[in-house]
Design a protein that fits this description.
Length: about 90
């Protein structure tokens, strides 16, 4: 059974009133887009929730595809508590 790499409580955090989840630009780890460029674009696309670590961590998987998504889904359960954990 799949378990998220972040605490399950993060999925219970409500988004701000009328917040619409973006259709994120996908990053696969292939091609010309660097991880730095992708993360910057992702944070911008997050909009008003970008300053909330838990929501940013939760939404990241929606911006990944291919090998980058596989990497995220193979992280150990509860191994990501803060955005800084993903930057390591």
């Amino acid at each position: 059974m799949y378990r998220t790499p972040y605490p399950s409580a993060y999925d219970q955090i409500p988004f701000p009133h009328k917040y619409k989840v973006s259709d994120f630009t996908k990053f696969s780890g292939q091609g010309d887009v660097s991880t730095v460029e992708h993360v910057n674009r992702f944070v911008i696309q997050c909009g008003e929730v970008a300053n909330q670590d838990a929501i940013r961590v939760q939404l990241l998987s929606m911006s990944l595809s291919g090998s980058a998504f596989t990497w995220f889904t193979t992280l150990l359960a509860n191994s990501i508590l803060y955005w800084a954990d993903l930057e390591k």
